[in-house]
Amino acid sequence: MNYPTLAGLTLDGRIYRNEEMGTVESMVPPGPFATCHSPAMLELPNGDMLCCWFAGTYEGEADVHIVCARLPKGAQRWTEPVSVSGDPKRSEQNPSLFNGPDGAVWCMYTAQLDRIAGKDNMQFTSQIRCQKSFDGGLTWGGYETVFQREGSFCRQPIQILKNGRWIFGNWLCTDSEEGLSGDPSVFQISDDQGKSWRMVEMPGSRGRVHPTVVELDDGHLAAFMRSREADNVYRSESLDWGETWSEPKPTPLPNNNSSISAIRTKSGRVAVAYNPTATPSPVPGKAAWPGLRCPVAVALSEDGGLTFPLIRLMERGEGYIGEENKTNNKQYEYPYLMQSTDGRLHLTYAAYTRKCIKYVSFTEEDVIGAKREFDGVYNPTSGEGTK
Question: For residues 173 and 149, is the Cβ–Cβ distance under 8 A?
């Protein structure tokens, strides 16, 4: 597609070409909502793209619900969002999308009770629900509560492994003095396409949450996690299709106690989208909220997520750095990364301190970098600049 050169993103969903970055970008229309947060994406069988997120007054309020916008294949702008959910007594958050075997798009999300007096965090009341669309995200049916255990939380989508097993990364929130710092990660596993599920626990995972599963080889899985201590992205492995997991260990990537996203690309690399910031003095077992959610980076690993020698800032924010200057950046947070069938990478995240969802499309080569002539034209086939 030929997209107009980026002259300034607009809230009408129009897609632009960012010549400086070599990316395609847009702001997904936010609709009439004060905040937009926690996006997820899905490519439909016909090539259309869906983006969903939670929208409303603010996270945790009862008017917060799931919405979904569409980018038709070949189109130059995203559509206005339509409502997916709308329980008036619960705050509905953290959606993910999945192409179900019944031909429907499944939207999985959390639903927690509205705040009560003296209680700000109600995540311990959350259940996980599913709503389906049989027309590509235009309209949605009623909800089904799939995981009724209170405190169940999710972020990343259901993954289908090579042996046909479904695995769904969750974590369990409790109403304790330690609060979110004690939450462990678990996995919901189904061997009958979601008809029944059983839970597998990850040992030593208290405070390591938002597990994102990447299949490295047959039965060999890696899960990447956010850290409540705001120190590093953590990694755990399974060698038996998710039946058992190693205790999570820190990767070289920093984490600021904010969500990450990890995938295995068609090239075999592991790609992680994250905020490359952390608290300067993490305390073991204690949750930290440094508040620095800018910039957004994508890191590539060629050894299954042990090291990440290839990193690029895909969102630089307002560009402020320095101990007393960095808070001038707005928040760019909760990245979601996916790869479409044509090999392009697609990244969304809450932007401008949850004003809207920003969409960026690029290639692995855009992250890796390539030789360019200063005054030449880049040849994407050869990787060389030509005058």
Answer: no
Which residue, chain included where needed, has tokens 């994406």? Answer: 41
Residue range 115-134, pLDDT digits in tens: 988 888 999 999 999 999 99
From residue 256, alpha-carbon distances to 91, 104, 239, 278, 300 in Å are 24, 35, 29, 4, 19
Residue 366 has pLDDT above 80, yes or no: yes
72 pLDDT exceeds 60?
yes
Give me the number of domains the chain comprises: 1
pLDDT of residue 217: 95
Which residues contact residue 303 at a Cβ distance below 8 angstroms, ignoring those fewer than 6 apart?
A: none
Helix (H, G, I), strand (E, B) or coil at 328: helix
Residue range 248-260, pLDDT digits in tens: 999 999 999 999 9
Contact between 87 and 148 under an 8 Å Cβ cutoff? The reply is no
Contacting residues for 193 by C-beta, under 8 A, at least 6 apart? 101, 166
Residue 382 belongs to a domain: no
Asked whether residue 12 is assigned to any structural domain, the reply reads no
183-195 b/e (C-beta count within 10 Å ≥ 16 → b): bbbbbbbbeeebe
The number of CA neighbours under 13 Å toward the Cβ of 187 is 30
Q: Count of CB atoms within 10 A of residue 158's CB?
A: 22
pLDDT in tens, 300-341: 999 999 999 999 999 999 999 998 898 899 999 999 999 999
Indicate the SS3 state at residue 325.
coil
Does this model's pTM top 0.90?
A: yes
Structure token pair of residue 124: 């311990």
Name the nearest CA neighbour of 288 among 348, 230, 355, 222: 230
Q: What is the pLDDT of residue 6?
A: 65
Using CA atoms, how far apart are residues 30 and 9, in angstroms rounded to an integer? Answer: 13
Residue 303 within a domain: yes
What pLDDT does residue 7 have?
66
Range of the domain at 158: 24-368
CATH code, domain with 45? 2.120.10.10
